[in-house]
Amino acid sequence: MHAFIETGQYPDFITVDGGEGGTGAAPPEFSNSIGTPLVEGLGFVHAVLVGAGFRDPVNKSKSKIALIASGKHLTGMNLFKSMCLGADVCNSARAFLFSLGCIQALKCNTNTCPTGITTQNPDLAFGLDPTEKQVRVANYHMETVKACVEVMEAAGVKSSAEIHPALLVKRISIGKSRDYKEIYDHLQVKPGELLDMKGPRRLLEAWDLNDGIVNRVV
């Protein structure tokens, strides 16, 4: 981040991949236990970029760096949740595999996928009929986006760029609910605040650590 500021050069986008994702070829220890949940990592990255002056928390379309979120997006609400935490775009892999007929046999790297999706074996691949499956994929995509738009309408926003963390509320105990901006106080950072060494403690600690690494490398 400090290098972005010092050089004036920064990427067009950053993709945050949550620990929920994975492939059937991954070792169980990696797919089940390693990685940061998307809700944690995405919000943190968004907050740091806001604090460094690269993202606009009010209208994301004005941001200098776009954020792409990846990590088990299956429903319209999943998409809305990630956009609440800062995402401009959401990637999805597993959900589209489901729409193709994936049964999570965990055979992705063995060439023996029983549904024909991840195999070159002609005796198995015949199950993946593009004529039929392309319709299923298109329908799934259309209905998922439609569901997300319906949630946006219920939340009273006209554009995905207007979605913010205060729209997402979580019950934390009996009779007590908090929106995500209250739960994750680093999401309360103000634009450019980290440049003046101000803001939520968690972000300041990461900012100092990042600065030390950059200085040692330079």
Describe this structure in words.
This protein is mostly helical. It has a single domain (2-217), classed as Alpha-Beta Barrel (TIM Barrel), CATH 3.20.20. The chain is 43% helix and 10% strand. It is built from nine helices and five strands, in the order αβααβαβαααββαα. It has helices at 2-7, 28-33, 38-51, 76-84, 94-100, 122-125, 130-155, 180-183, 201-217; strands at 13-17, 66-70, 89-91, 169-173, 176-179. Strands 1-2-3 form a three-stranded parallel beta sheet, with helices on one face. A two-stranded antiparallel sheet has the order 4-5. Helix 4 (76-84) links the parallel strand 2 and strand 3 (89-91). Helix 4 (76-84) crosses helix 7. It starts with a helix and ends with a helix. Mean pLDDT is 88; it is low at 212-218.
Note the main attributes of this structure.
218 residues, TIM Barrel, two-stranded antiparallel ribbon, 9 helices, 5 strands
How is the topology of this model organized?
Layout: H1 2-7, E1 13-17, H2 28-33, H3 38-51, E2 66-70, H4 76-84, E3 89-91, H5 94-100, H6 122-125, H7 130-155, E4 169-173, E5 176-179, H8 180-183, H9 201-217
Parallel strand pairs: 1-2, 2-3
Antiparallel strand pairs: 4-5
Largest sheet descriptor: 3 strands, parallel
Mean pLDDT, as a whole number? 88
**CATH T-level fold name:** TIM Barrel
Give me the Rg, rounded. 20 Å
Q: Give the H and E element order.
A: HEHHEHEHHHEEHH
The number of domains is 1
Please count the helical segments.
9
Taking pLDDT < 50 over at least 5 consecutive residues as the criterion, the unreliable ranges are 212-218
Number of strands: 5
